[in-house]
Amino acid sequence: MQSSHRSTAHETPADTRAPAPAVPSAEPIPEVAPSASPATPQPSPVFSATSQPSSSAEPRTTISISEYRALCHTLQTLTTSQSTLTQEMAALRAHQEQIIATQTQHTAILRQIQSHLGIPSAPQHQMPAPLEPTEPTPGDTQTST
């Protein structure tokens, strides 16, 4: 005999209430669509009513542990991607600086040849200054949990 009671013992809800920001942001927080794949149906969020008063002005939301784990996995993937992109950007900056240095050397050699041959040199163009590497600020790399 099949019971109509839905067992949720394996779906322990996880509290996902974000801590209140230390300084209120002037920018609105963007809405994010769930990233569940169509082949894997995800349980809808569980909203729990609790007798404990919330210390935050925002309502308390509870999600299933499987959705929490999926969000943690997505966060880890995004963190890894950000790290990889940061490393690639640093390598590109270094390569760009090498190209600019080589271009500067070639321009100096060309001017010497033009001077030696008595060819009037073209007006000098401003060389683009190498970009200063921008280090991510602590707020850029940390996420609130």
Shape category = rod-shaped
Task: Give the N-terminus to C-terminus distance in angstroms.
Answer: 43 Å
Q: Kindly state the percentage of residues in helix.
A: 25-40%
**Number of contiguous helices:** 2
Largest sheet: 2 strands, antiparallel
Structural class: mainly alpha
Low-confidence stretches: 1-13, 16-39
Counting DSSP E segments of at least 2 residues, the number of strands comes to: 2
Compute the CA-based radius of gyration. 28 Å
SS strand fraction: under 5%
Average of per-residue pLDDT values: 71
* Helix and strand sequence: EEHH
Order of the strands making up the biggest sheet: 1-2
Summed up:
Residues 47-62 have a biased composition (Polar residues). With 145 residues, the protein is mainly α.
List the helices and strands and how they pair.
Layout lengths: L13 E2 L46 E2 L1 H53 L20 H4 L4
Antiparallel strand pairs: 1-2
Q: What do you see in this structure?
A:
This protein is mostly helical and 145 residues long. The protein has a domain at 64-117. Helix content is 39%, strand content 3%. The protein is built from two helices and two strands, in the order ββαα. It has helices at residues 65-117, 138-141; strands at 14-15, 62-63. It has a two-stranded antiparallel ribbon with strand order 1-2. It is rod-shaped, with a radius of gyration of 28 Å. The model is unreliable at 1-13 and 16-39 (pLDDT under 50). Residues 1-62, 120-145 are annotated as: Disordered. Residues 47-62 have a biased composition (Polar residues).
